[in-house]
Amino acid sequence: GHGGPFMNNDAVYDSKIMFADNDGNLLKLISLPTGFQVSDLLAMDDGSLMAAETFPGYDFRNQIYMYHFTENGDLISLDSIFPSIIDTLNIFSGYDLRGIRMCQSHTSGNVIVFARTEDQTGFIMEYNPVSGSQWLTRTSEQIGDCLPTPDGGYLMNAENFYNPYLSLIKMNATGDTIWSKHFYGLYPLSQQLIATDDGNYIMGNGFF
């Protein structure tokens, strides 16, 4: 599946998810009703699909819509989770979300949501499509990408535009930091993080 915005001159995002086969033939096209933009898609271990949708503008629409679909594209659930995050953290009023990354926990099977905000910070949340948020932790850097690790924890790369380094951060299953490493350079931009077959990691980043 692929999610993205389609503009039709009404100044509103028309967000769609497209399901295609191995030959690129369109199988199903889903129009999402919220007028936001699909920020990330996650194929779950049970074959279902999670979609995280945010609004990428500067008008303080600080909401995340979490869609849960069957493998055939039928909607299981739709949840707006960000109002409870605002109540919990009391810090996002006036700041925009700038993107979402998701991965699935190796231990709980829940979705781990990594978000970056316009104020150069972010948050990490464990989310269950049935019961909602499980735990939440704040970060002092914007999160670029995330990976679950075999020990049940997570690895993420992150940056703060005002710090002269990129960060690689290892966390345990509840979001506590185990270690962090810094890679120095001016005006960093964290991008993709992938795991290799030999158990190592490749981090793709940039510096302005």
Query: Low-confidence segments, ≥5 residues, pLDDT <50?
Result: 1-6, 90-94
- From the N-terminal CA to the C-terminal CA, the straight-line distance is 32 Å
The largest sheet has its strands arranged as 4-5-6-7
Largest sheet descriptor: 4 strands, antiparallel
Number of DSSP E strands? 17
Lay out the secondary structure.
Layout: E1 2-6, E2 14-20, E3 26-31, E4 37-43, E5 49-54, E6 65-69, E7 75-80, H1 82-89, E8 97-104, E9 111-117, E10 122-128, E11 132-139, E12 142-148, E13 154-159, E14 165-171, E15 177-184, E16 188-195, E17 201-207
Antiparallel strand pairs: 1-2, 2-3, 4-5, 5-6, 6-7, 8-9, 9-10, 10-11, 12-13, 13-14, 14-15, 16-17
Keywords:
mainly beta, four-stranded antiparallel sheet, 4% helix, 208 residues, 17 strands, disordered N terminus
Can you offer a commentary on this structure?
With 208 residues, the protein is mainly beta. The protein contains one helix and 17 strands. It has one helix at 82-89, and strands spanning 2-6, 14-20, 26-31, 37-43, 49-54, 65-69, 75-80, 97-104, 111-117, 122-128, 132-139, 142-148, 154-159, 165-171, 177-184, 188-195, 201-207. The strands form five sheets. The chain has a four-stranded antiparallel sheet with strand order 4-5-6-7, with no helix packed on it.
